[in-house]
Amino acid sequence: MLVFKQAYQLIVMAVAVLMTASVQARELVIAFENTLQDSSSLDGKARSQMLVRNLKTVAVPQAMFLIKTENLDSKNRERVALYSDNGHLLVNAGHDHSLVSKSDLYAYEIGLLKANRLLAPFQGYKKHIHFSYLHESGDASIQRGLIEFLQERGYQPAFTGFNPARGIDNYIDQLYQKKVRNNRRVDMAALEKAYIQLMLEPLRQQDEYLFNMLGYSPRQVLVIQENDLAAYFIVALVDELNARGWTMVAAEKALNDPLVNPVALGGWGANGYLHGLTGLPELPVAYPRLIGARQAGVDRVLQQLVPGFIE
User: Which of 96, 102, 93 lies closest to 129, judged by CA?
Assistant: First the structure.
């Protein structure tokens, strides 16, 4: 009887663990990159205001904004303050050039320190740094030196992981801006439907792959370009994510939780956390981000759902 009782307790505990995993399995962080873009069909500040308002509408608790500070003039400081004052997490993404283009450790350090100084006055900045694909493609000696530099000064890692949808929304927005400049009509309802499908299908595929590998769905990060279409469509996008079983979680919670972010245990060492979960190497990143068959596939969806959008 005692053995049976112990076995039963073990089964209950196992079920509880699985239920906990299933609850956490569909958690998602929203991250915005290429932030502080210039005005386009929307004024830059109006775009940020719309984005913040719409994030609040769909109860996103805390998004992550990757900030390069070279364009941090007075108007853009107001935009960063808007993100910060509404509880979103600001992440140091360097000052000027893409970090992968630099070739010496000193240049990395200066850029990150300059960005840190400019972001320090904002309450939403907690010394998180995202240095993009340095770990996947950088020089090993520079990587080691930079990691030591960051650890000694108390910086924290921010990850986005490999996101197969990344860049798709930028490409769609470029096509949209061209239509607006040429004073051509756009079926926004149809474009919203295509945008959501193109953003979420790669996420679904990746989640399915990871679930089959791990037996559960790890917390993920959806990277979105901070552009006009994001401001217009973020409500419908998050609504669809919720309908598919995803729960939006605070970026800071994910970054600081060592159970789902093994990077937090070792300090740095990866752009994402999937290596710590799977034991597999980080997936490589190809530049440009939208090329060949991938763009052709996007074009097919746009032609089907938004006839006349691609000219």
Answer: 93
Running DSSP on this structure, what letter comes out for residue 122?
A: S
Q: Which 8-state DSSP code applies to residue 269? A: S
The answer to whether the CB of 55 falls within 8 A of the CB of 87 is no
Both tokens of 190, joined, read: 């149809």
Closest CA to 90 of 56, 58, 113, 120: 120
Q: And the tokens for 264?
A: 């937090």
Length of the chain: 311
pLDDT digits (tens, 9 = 90+) for 202-228: 889 888 888 888 788 888 889 999 999
End-to-end CA distance of the chain: 75
Helix, strand, coil % (nearest 5) of the chain? 55, 10, 35
Judge whether 262 and 273 are in contact, CB under 8 Å: yes
Compute the distance between CA of residue 131 and CA of residue 93 in angstroms, rounded to an integer.
Answer: 6
Sole residue written with tokens 């915005």: 32
Arithmetic mean of pLDDT, 19-38: 76
Please confirm whether the linkage preceding 281 is cis (ω < 30° from 0).
no
Q: How many CB atoms lie within 10 A of CB 7?
A: 10
2-16 pLDDT, tens per residue?
A: 444 444 444 434 334
What is the rounded radius of gyration, in angstroms, for the C-alpha atoms of the chain? Answer: 21
pTM: 0.85
Render pLDDT for 289-302 as a digit per residue (tens, 0 to 9). Answer: 555 668 889 999 99
Q: Which helix (H) or strand (E) holds 33?
A: strand 27-33
Query: What's the half-sphere exposure (Cβ side, CA atoms, 13 Å) at 204?
Result: 12
Q: What is the pLDDT of residues 140-180, one digit of tens each?
A: 787 778 888 888 999 988 877 666 677 899 999 999 999 99
Measured in whole angstroms, the distance separating CA 156 from the mean position of its chain's CA atoms is 16
**206 touches 15 (CB < 8 A):** no
